[in-house]
Amino acid sequence: MSESNNNKNDRIVSHLTRNTIALILAGGRGSRLMNMTDWRAKPAVPFGGKFRIIDFPLSNCVNSGIRKIGILTQYKADSLIRHVQQGWGFLRGEFGEYVDLMPAQQRVDENSWYKGTADAIFQNIDILRRRAPEHILILAGDHIYKMDYGEMLADHIAKNADLTIGCIEVSLEEATAFGVMDVDDNRRVRAFVEKPEHPPVMPGRTDTALASMGIYIFNANFLFDKLIEDAQNPDSTNDFGKDIIPAVIDDYIVNAYPFLNLQGGQSYWRDVGTIDAYWAANMELVSVKPDLNLYDKTWPIWTYQAQTPPAKFVFDNDDRRGQAVDSMVSGGCVISGASIKRSLLFSNVRVNSYTTLTDTIVLPDVNIARYCRITKAIIERGCEVPEGMVIGEDRAEDEKRFHVSADGVVLVTPEMLGQHIHTHYVR
Question: Which residues of 269-295 are buried (b: 16+ CB within 10 A; e: fewer)?
Answer without folding.
Answer: bbbbbbbebbbebbbebbeeeeebeee
